[in-house]
Amino acid sequence: MKFGNVIVTFNRKELLLEAINSLLRQSVYIDKIVIVDNHSTDGTYDFLEKSGVLVDKRIDYYYLRENIGGSGGFEYGMRKAMQYDLDWITLSDDDAIYEENYFSYIEDEITRNKDISIFTGTVKLEDGRIQNTHRRIISNWNTLSYRMISESSYNKNFYVDLFTFVGATISTKLIRKIGYPEKDFFIWWDDLEYSLRARNYTKILNVSKAVVLHKTKIVSMDFSKKYKADWREYYGWRNRIVTLRKHSKNRLVINLFLIAWMVKRYARLVKPFYKHNRLHLVKLYTRAFYDAYTKHLGINNHYKP
């Protein structure tokens, strides 16, 4: 059983090195590690070269001439990984640190479940809490509404409908069937859209003992403070709308749902939290809605890193 891994990185060289080393220390041999550098400007390559890690012939390092976003990075990396003789490809960002038995637990479940083509693991924060946003269950297939998995469910393995790319292990046979992530999403929702495509062919099993540490900061929406504009929101809303329209089981229901949903978004702007940013958000929501319905994807020059 041959495993490969794709890591997409941007300006986080110390975390990237830690992520690479966590793969090299696995109790199960990792045959290939594909690193996609999204045009980092912090000297990532030189840093890795000095660390000595790049002498390992299993590592392929690709430096992109421009930042094509996480979506583009995963699409690019998966294509490169698929050129090798691999059975499974695992995806993650540069802030995902695998516990050393991660792939051992995954391999055990692959052996037991021959009919399943995607396995995920438990994503934990640095303080030990489970980050349950990474594994979800669809509660309504018409509107694609979902719920998070309860923490108690992680005491055993369970099936999911939606997953993020943090630690997702995908059969290369399935990748040949369903293709690659939507590179034109740029960022956000590429993993959830890919989940829905995959669900047409396979169940998705979360292997709860397989743990990946996600070294990320959790941003909470504190309505007692002022809203802080974030260019990434545009892609979140646009790509979500595209995904819902593409995968909903009922086209009429989803269109009515999305119209009501957007009206509600506009109505929320009366809250003091959004003061001084209302016009910005009206434009953002309107552009996201329009571009989703007209299938205008890729990077939007109004919303760039």
Name its key features.
305 residues, 9-stranded mixed sheet, alpha/beta, 22% strand
Number of strands: 12
Order of helices and strands: EHEHEHEEHEEEEEEHHEHHH
| Overall morphology | globular
Number of helices: 9
* Percent of residues in β-strands: 15-25%
Low-confidence stretches: none
> Radius of gyration, rounded?
20 Å
Largest sheet: 9 strands, mixed
Structural class: alpha/beta
Question: Quaternary arrangement of the chains shown?
Answer: single chain
Cα(first) to Cα(last) distance is 39 Å
Task: Provide a brief overview of the structure.
It is built from nine helices and twelve strands. It has 305 residues and is α/β, with parallel strands linked by helices. Helix 1 (13-24) links the parallel strand 1 and strand 2 (30-37).
Structural description of this entry:
With 305 residues, this protein is α/β, with parallel strands linked by helices. It contains nine helices and twelve strands. α6 (190-198) packs parallel to α7 (232-247) and α7 (232-247) packs parallel to α9 (278-293). The longest helix has 18 residues, at 251-268. The mean pLDDT is 95.
